[in-house]
Amino acid sequence: MKTFLSLILVALINVVTQAQTCELSYFKEAKTIKLNDSLTIAYKELGKGKETILMVHGLGGNMSHWMHNFIKNQHCIAIDLPSYGLSTMHDFKPKTDLLDFYADVILAFIDKKKLKNVVLVGHSMGGQTAIVTVLRKHPAIKKLILAAPAGFETFSEAEAQSLIDFAKPETFKNQTETLVKVSLARNFFEMPASAEKLIADRLLIPQCESFNPYFVAVAKGVRGMLEHPIRKELNKIDVPTLVIFGENDALIPNKFLHKSLTTKQIADMGAEIPKVKITMIPKAGHLLMFEQAQRFNEEIATFLK
């Protein structure tokens, strides 16, 4: 009996310790840089090359979503946006245009790191953010890669409001373990074993009070994408652009609101970008760069050549 109680006590101590340390699996690989007195950005950086591939994650993600995309013989950087991972847990002002704010952060990071010949890569919300950033015409950004970007698909006012009403911080914070796993699985055609780290990190976050702003950021991210449409701005993108979607994306288009649309139809909207190549990757879901990393990296390498 004493042995049994001891095992329970050890387990409880481990859970409490884990919750207090709040160490996500990829933190040991991360660096940080201070952009100003109130904002620090976490990032992972590897390799050298003539160009810098700067990768921006999507809604609810983090830099570990790019763990398989640090391409050989290239200078690659993946960042955590504010209120994600080790980046500053930011107190967003009520009237903040979130995508404009994220664009400010990306450009400040480029300037602080003195990056040149930047290939800006964005996934999902990060793709929509990358478009907003490129439209600022920063001279360092030479190319754009959009991986399953948000923003091509548009929503009516009523549809947008329904999504905003659903996306509350507590909605994401109170997800059960089962729901977290189901939600993540919807990002894949076939979920790879390496995605278990993503699940473990996501399950840890609600245990850590220091991560509460993360759930606010996710909710604000949904509103931010809907309140900053970019579809009509696509023809103003003046850098060579690669648009990549997974053929089996279960999140774009929205399967509940736009049942008649296909992922290919959404991808083809990228043809409005003047200098664009559009590619569909088979057997890939929304997190295509994670699920089909080799093919995704090959597409990037070919595009850069």
From TrEMBL:
SUPFAM superfamilies listed in its UniProt record: alpha/beta-Hydrolases
GO terms assigned for molecular function: hydrolase activity
Signal peptide: 1-21
InterPro entries assigned: AB_hydrolase_1, AB_hydrolase_fold, Carboxylesterase_BioH
Domain AB hydrolase-1: 53-298
Keywords for this protein: Hydrolase, Signal
Domain of life where this protein originates: Bacteria
A Pfam family this chain is assigned to: Abhydrolase_6
Descriptive protein name: Alpha/beta hydrolase fold containing protein
Record organism: Emticicia oligotrophica (strain DSM 17448 / CIP 109782 / MTCC 6937 / GPTSA100-15)
